[in-house]
């Protein structure tokens, strides 16, 4: 199965700053990559699919890029509600697999 | 509004069984595959099982194959996960999730906690 590796494990950012999260696949997944946000005690929420397509209702400050094995989630100006854990997931190969997550914390 | 509500979690004995349910509303249930995804404490999510919209096709992670059974009742807008031969590493929050077509998950329930311990 495809292994998804996220970095860094923890990212400390001040409100208003830009956050850049990385996700690497152990083999090419084309652009079949999704990003999720998870807050404590809540279910994951879909942010992006197709590597760069925002889900309904997701603010424009969230953007995704990349293809093949290297992907990036960028949050352009962090708001207080954006401090959370972010997961990537590939769905190019069976079974679908997730990364271990990046925690975005307040600096 | 799309809603998915899981139930049935709790404490299970090693070697025992539990049955999870997920009742959904807000979309045409039988048009979509549904999955169960679990998340152990402090870990990333792990896809567990999937059932097609008709219920005729099912798929399982290797870690649960032969022990878990996914099914659905389209008349009740409900998907189930029968968990047998429980093991300690099955301890996790179990989420049901809607599959929009490609295999990502666009809506999730709030989850139900399964703890396997004697």
List the helices and strands and how they pair.
The complex is a heterodimer of chains A (107) and B (118).
Chain A: E1 4-7, E2 10-13, E3 19-25, E4 33-38, E5 45-49, E6 53-54, E7 62-67, E8 70-75, E9 85-90, E10 97-98, E11 102-106
Parallel strand pairs in A: 2-11
Antiparallel strand pairs in A: 1-3, 3-8, 4-5, 4-9, 5-6, 7-8, 9-10, 9-11
Chain B: E1 3-7, E2 10-12, E3 18-25, E4 33-39, E5 46-51, E6 58-60, E7 68-73, E8 78-83, E9 92-99, E10 107-108, E11 112-116
Parallel strand pairs in B: 2-11
Antiparallel strand pairs in B: 1-3, 3-8, 4-5, 4-9, 5-6, 7-8, 9-10, 9-11
Describe the protein's architecture and organization.
- The complex is a heterodimer of chains A (107) and B (118).
- Chain A is globular, with a radius of gyration of 13 Å.
- Chain A is built from no helices and eleven strands.
- Chain A has 107 residues and is mostly beta strands.
- In chain A, strands 2, 4, 5, 6, 9, 10 and 11 form a seven-stranded mixed beta sheet that branches. A four-stranded antiparallel beta sheet of chain A has the order 1-3-8-7, with no helix packed on it.
- Chain A has strands at residues 4-7, 10-13, 19-25, 33-38, 45-49, 53-54, 62-67, 70-75, 85-90, 97-98, 102-106.
- The mean pLDDT of chain A is 96.
- Chain B has 118 residues and is mainly β.
- Chain B has no helices and eleven strands.
- In chain B, the strands form two sheets. In chain B, strands 2, 4, 5, 6, 9, 10 and 11 form a seven-stranded mixed beta sheet that branches.
- In chain B, strand 9 and strand 10 form a beta hairpin.
- Chain B starts with a strand and ends with a strand.
- The model of chain B has no long low-confidence stretch (mean pLDDT 96).
- Chains A and B meet through strand 5 and strand 10 of A and strand 10 of B.
């Amino acid at each position: 199965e495809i292994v998804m590796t996220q970095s860094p494990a923890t990212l400390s950012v001040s409100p208003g700053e830009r956050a850049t999260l990385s996700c690497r696949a152990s083999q090419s997944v084309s652009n079949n990559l999704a990003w999720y946000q998870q807050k404590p005690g809540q279910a994951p929420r879909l942010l992006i699919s197709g590597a760069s397509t925002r889900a309904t209702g997701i603010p424009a400050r969230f953007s995704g890029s990349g293809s093949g094995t290297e992907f990036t989630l960028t949050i352009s100006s962090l708001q207080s509600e954006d401090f959370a854990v972010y997961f990537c997931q590939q769905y190019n190969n069976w079974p679908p697999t997730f990364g271990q997550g990046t925690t975005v914390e307040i600096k | 509004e799309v809603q998915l509500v899981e139930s049935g979690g709790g404490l299970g004995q090693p070697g025992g069984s539990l049955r999870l349910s997920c009742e959904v509303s807000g979309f045409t249930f039988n048009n979509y595959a549904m999955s169960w995804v679990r998340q152990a404490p402090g870990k990333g999510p792990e896809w567990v099982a999937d059932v097609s919209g008709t219920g005729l096709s099912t798929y399982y992670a290797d870690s649960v194959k032969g022990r878990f059974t996914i099914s659905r009742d389209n008349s009740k807008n409900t998907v189930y996960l029968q968990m047998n031969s429980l093991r300690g590493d099955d301890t996790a929050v179990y989420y049901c999730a809607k599959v929009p077509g490609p295999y990502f998950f666009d809506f999730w329930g709030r989850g139900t906690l399964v703890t396997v311990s004697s």
